[in-house]
From TrEMBL:
This is 2-(1,2-epoxy-1,2-dihydrophenyl)acetyl-CoA isomerase. It comes from the Bacteria. The keyword Isomerase applies. Transmembrane segments: none annotated. Residues 233-256 are annotated as: Disordered. Keywords: Isomerase. It comes from Fictibacillus solisalsi.
């Protein structure tokens, strides 16, 4: 079905794997299109309640494949390729996990930052590589990075372009968890299945309005919360949660 990515689903979790290991999963125009299609399909699939994005081989993603055109219009590459992909990823009202199995560089970092959670292998590393080829962080990088680590540290990472380890990324708040290489996939799967068993609509509402909060004042956020709570309060999962609480049992959420 796809040339540059692999897609599979199990236990309510969609696994999207960037699959150009010989190029460290560098992005091409085809990969942009396929990622966008996979994300759109996953967002619409009611049976999918969590999404994992990872890379084949020893890298998560090395960013843009710089081979090909001698004088690319990077603005158009972003507008046609990266930007729609990042916007789709952020708009999906389901939890998205970046399973950073190896090096994440350039736009590979941006992709990870745009996800809701990041679990890193102990072998993973992150590098804002743009500066080393005279470019500017893109694909949402300048939006997400300072929000995750603060303005001063974001400037340091973006301008100096120094590689940081998985443990350093954890200390900075860039990743949720660092896992040993031998159990990395199992740790990701356990985390993803846990998310997939939670109230999906409530998670989606949290994601939607937390994103909006960055450009909103308190009165707007209070209204967003009221709107979200009204919606969440009408879900089957809310009814199940209340019933389980009253009956002193573990709730069984269905995402509805």
């Amino acid at each position: 079905m796809f040339e540059t990515i692999n897609y599979e689903s199990r236990a309510g979790v969609a696994w999207i794997t960037l699959n150009r290991p010989e190029k460290l999963n560098a992005f091409t125009a085809v990969m942009h299109k396929e990622m966008l299609a996979a994300l759109k399909n996953t967002g619409k699939d009611k049976d999918i309640r969590a999404i994992v994005i990872t890379g084949a081989g020893r890298a998560f993603c090395s960013g843009q494949d710089l081979g090909g055109s001698d004088n690319p219009d990077y603005g158009e590459v972003l507008r046609k390729g990266y930007n729609p992909m990042i916007q789709e990823l952020v708009s999906i009202e389901k939890p998205v996990i970046a399973a950073v199995n190896g090096v994440a560089a350039g736009a590979g970092v941006s992709l990870a930052l745009a996800c809701d959670f990041r679990i890193a292998s102990e072998k993973a590393s992150f590098i804002e590589a743009f500066i080393h080829v005279g470019l500017v962080p893109d694909s949402g990088n300048l939006y997400f990075l300072p929000r995750l680590v603060g303005h001063a540290k974001a400037m340091e990472l973006a301008v100096l372009g120094e590689k940081i380890s998985a443990d350093q990324a954890k200390e900075l708040g860039l990743v949720t968890k660092v896992a040993e290489e031998e159990v990395f996939i199992q740790e990701v799967e356990t985390f993803a299945v846990k998310l997939a068993s939670m109230p999906t609509k409530a998670i989606g509402l949290i994601k939607r309005y937390m994103n909006k909060s960055w450009e909103s004042d308190l009165s707007e956020v209070l209204e967003y919360e009221a709107l979200a709570q009204k919606t969440a309060g009408s879900t089957e999962d809310h009814k199940e949660g209340v019933s389980a609480f009253m009956e002193k049992r573990k709730p069984e959420f269905t995402g509805r």
